Amino acid sequence: MIDPALLRDHGDVVRSAMTARGADLSAALDALAALDADRRRLLPEIEGLQREQNESAAAVARAKKEGRDTAALQEDSRHRAARIKELSQQLEAVEQQRRDALLVIPNLPHATVPAGASADDNVEVRRHGTPREFAFTPQAHWDLGPALGIIDFERGVKLAAARFTVLMGAGAQLARALINFMLHVHTTEHGYTEVEPPFMVNAASLTGTGNLPKFEADLFKIAGDWDLYLSPTAEVPLTNLHRGEILDGARLPIRYTAYTPCFRSEAGSYGADVRGLIRQHQFDKVELMIVSTAEDSYAEHERLTGNAEEILRRLELPYRTIVLCTGDVGFAAAKTYDIEVWLPGQQAYREISSCSNTEAFQARRANIKYRPEGKKKAEFAHTLNGSGLAVGRTLIAILENYQQEDGSVVIPEALRPFMNGMARIERP
RNA sequence: GGAGAGGUGGCCGAGUGGUCGAUGGCGGUGGUCUUGAAAACCACUGAACCCGGAAGGGUUCCGGGGGUUCGAAUCCCUCCCUCUCCGCCA
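YS: structure for the whole thing
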């Protein structure tokens, strides 16, 4: 949620930020500003009447104690009560509309975010490793995996639906090893606390992160008499851990990591990445999440992105890091780095992590505050999140980058301790 | 799934229609005392929003929502949550 006071006092800043995003929100912002003005007109009027009503009630109490007649006072109060009720109903309607309007306004891009209209305008900030030279034509993982007997696409469809997959044998083991490896590095070297959250979340949590109300179509909702959704990312439960709390500033930054399965309906992406493991309705991810002070959040953002990159460096996978431009940065984010891993089967860098600083956008929606050390007034925290990393896509990257001419796949050195020492996955 | 009990400020715990945002205790902060600490004593100690340049003033909040009333923590309705027992179960 953007700061309502910013729209009120510096509407031009908000408007130009939305233009930079390529979002035409001028009508929505006009409506929001009008609702805000209505609210500020109604509120003092109601509060003044309530004050009179409180005084009147006290006068009745005094009069009764002294045995005087209170009929006139009560009659007066009755009229005022009706007026208060009438105005309050108006205010309630205005506030509801104002809330609804605020919840669909995206975040303001940070000043360091490059201007641009689409993903084509994203800017590469660094590149690590060199794509391997193959003496043969490298295969895509959707050929490698089934040939090794470790990925079964057909049976995933049989068990559930398209975009569900079964991992078998060394494939399942590899996914589990990756999860353990990532959690191990983040908890023992990067200072994150491991969390196992619920894999289903409620509407309040999804509203806090910004998935609701605007992106309900991307979610799987639980049928029946439940206000629950399958979590699309651990960002949702981790960010909401401190929803409605005021944290001690001395405790910040708080860093969490969690392995969870993630569930996304992938509505509207029917033509994209239909082959292979890239885009699934269910996938595993190790998430990184940080609650930070406002001053430190951009330093934390760099750190978090580096923590995610470190996994790829340990696995010796070539990657590049790009910063999303104003036209591509997500709804809740002020700034996002995408980390893209090299996939020889596609001869392309593909997203394997997305690391965002949402500043106070989610904190305002989820009411996450902290009391700066030595200060009395609580402030909105900044929240950050990033994949550290997407497990399925990491598995793909290993298969494709470490494939051998005979169709076997070498296990990266760093992963072998988590694979019971296995050094290679052979064809059956 | 069945039966019962209960949700009050950071915590414990009073309060069953009239200045109650709420007695008291604990915890916390500051002070007095002390070489220092403890103890004792004193004071302060929630949040959101509105008006205001500020100082300050005001409104709301006793699980959520609605209702009765001049007036609700207190009465009524409803929803949510927690706990206990039984059943079932990993």
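YS: worth flagging: Residues 39-40, 43-44, 46-48, 50-51, 53-62, 64-65, 70, 73-78, 80-81, 246, 367, 378 of chain A lie near RNA strand B (CB under 10 Å from a C1').
IM: good catch. Also The first strand of chain A starts at residue 123 and ends at 128.
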